[in-house]
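Inputs:
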Amino acid sequence: MTKTTVMICRDPKGLNRQLVPLLPATGAITLIGWKQIPEPVDGGVPNDVAMMLARAFTSVARVTFFGISEADVTSRDWLLLKEDFVRAVNKRGLIGRAQQLIDRIPYNAVLVSTRQAKTVIRLFDEPAFPWWLEGQIVLLSSTEGPPPLLDIKSVISLLDNDDSSRQRETCLDAGILGIIRPGVDGDIAGFLSLDPSIEAQLLSTLEDESTCSGFDWSVLCEAEFGERFAGA
Amino acid sequence: MGENLPGPRGTRYDMSQIDQGTMCRAQSGVPGPAGKTSAAAVESRGNHDEPMSGGILFAVGQASVIRIPIPGTNGLAIELSPKGFIPRGGSTSTLFFQDSAGRRLLRLDYGFNRTTNTIDYHWNQRGTFADFNIADHSAAGRSGLAAYHIVKYFRYAGRVVIVAGMVIDIVSIAQASKPLKRASEVAAGWAGAWVGCKVIGAGGAAIGTLASPLGTAVGGIGGCIIGGIGGYRGGSILASEVYDWAEGTFFKPLPEAAGP
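Outputs:
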């Protein structure tokens, strides 16, 4: 039988630079880690952990991330498709298309905005924006509000972790309350909260969902987190 | 006052002796005006001078960009770049065995390893354990270190080399006396190199897999280079023969026959 522990480390001072190097330090940072015994042979987020995270994210926020659309989406404005909003990522012009090809962004790439856990779980298994290679980003915005009003260039800029002094303001103006990034090998997630209320809500919901899933729950200091995360 | 006596030369008993062994036993020059190369001489020389070719560079370089199939792994192939979007700064992995989507992969990575709690060279994998028997975060050891760096530099050098090979080939077309023939040779050479890389590379990868994942990489990339060189050469020769055959073929109109 597999034993799963979800570990939390709030306000790490240096560990995040090693584990989640692509998270901008423009807000409060929380590390979300998980440990399974026995260790799974496959990398990435285990299915049961991914489902728990998806439920927790969608409970507290509208979740926006990169994905692939089976439908032909060309609109750069949000479009309601079944239960989810989508908008095309494709760049305009010859240079834009060439850049997209160089960046290995598929022609049918979209931003997906949803409150459905079954949609969110896809973000952990999307090879076009691989979580396990740190090629994914998750934007959390208000559950009641529309999808975030952030242009594609700004989202890519967040993904690239461009150093911008206005990044925090840009995100807040767009309605983004928090950002989640995969860490090293996709074995950990870094959560940047831009609004104090969402941090408390997410941690509380994560604890509830972990308990419901039969996982152990631990809030650890930085040293303990590092030990437990890496221990064999 | 001269030393020789007057009179016709070559008829005297004391004529100069010429040693036969000092003469070059080569075909004498074709008659014609001095200082100009005759058409026959050009034709004669053309048989001996190979056109400038980027075949070897192309074949070596293509191994850094092509997908080299690994037989018996349900669609995995050797590649030196990841699939999917990677943030600026790139991936910390250099060698990838992955399917066409990038969902199943085994990669040689350098970075923090949660199993060993240190920064080291290790393997990361998803869905390939049955093929390579390597679990996620398995240490790659000293051979992994060497392979990581060789592949890292080959990835960049290979791309430079393939462009150089293509440029040389294109220049050779521009300089050729028969550009269409040379273009046919180059195009067929590139196609042959691609096929040769895939076929021989797959064979090399299959043999190498018997040893280890690094054996897969060595066999696959080595086979790709060898197959690419052979394929380029074979493709070029075939195209040349076909061109010559087509150029020397004339079609005679059929005699008209009276209708019934």
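Remarks. The longest strand of chain A covers residues 28-37. The radius of gyration of chain A is 17 Å.
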